[in-house]
Amino acid sequence: MTIKILLVDDHQIVLKGISFFLSMQSDFELVGEAHNGKEAVLKAAELQPDIILMDLNMPVMDGIEASQLIAQQNPDIKVLVLTSFSDRSHIIPAMQSGVIGYMLKDVEPDQLAEAIRSAYKGNIQLHPDISGALFSPMVPEFAPDREIPKRGLIESLTPRELEVLQLLTRGMSNREIAHTLTVAEKTVKTHVSSILSKLHLSDRTQAALYAVQALKPNEN
């Protein structure tokens, strides 16, 4: 198995460093480089990589707009953000643009390699240091008449599971969710397991990020 990678960054030193790292991995093939979002969109269509490592702050077109266009034009290509920005004002729009994950440039090389391999398999990736910035708080306070927009597989969730997912997305533990909803912690655990099963996800972080993407406004 060889994973074809397109590297997108406007800093030449960063490009050289990551390119060298990628060349050391026997299962990676760097098929091209781009220096801005517009170039990334064009090269994605031309080269059809499996994974795009996408910077965010770039000239001509930023990484978020580029990721949106790539998701629309080439939905099979997985975009993995690799940036220095760890704030919610960058994380949430990036995740809502359709990317497979969000990594920071200070990530350990081995962790980046594993994130690329996991993203290739379709698993959402999230740098461990940005969990707090993403989850606290990410959605409005819970209210009985407020639901996460039901899109895609979220339509299969029950009203109670939607409540649990919304609180889970705010980074709450099972115990905290149980206290908020006035139910047993064991009941919450059952709901979380059901949510993961229905959404075809493996952990709570993936479920939270799925919800972030589902919160993207309709583009009418």
UniProtKB/TrEMBL annotation:
Pfam families: GerE, Response_reg. Keywords: DNA-binding, Phosphoprotein, Transcription, Transcription regulation. Coiled coil: none annotated. SMART domains: HTH_LUXR, REC. Residues 150-215 form the HTH luxR-type domain. GO terms for biological process: phosphorelay signal transduction system; regulation of DNA-templated transcription. InterPro entries: CheY-like_superfamily (IPR011006), NreC/VraR/RcsB-like_REC (IPR058245), Sig_transdc_resp-reg_C-effctor (IPR016032), Sig_transdc_resp-reg_receiver (IPR001789), Tscrpt_reg_LuxR_C (IPR000792), WalR-like (IPR039420). This is LuxR family two component transcriptional regulator. It comes from Paenibacillus prosopidis.
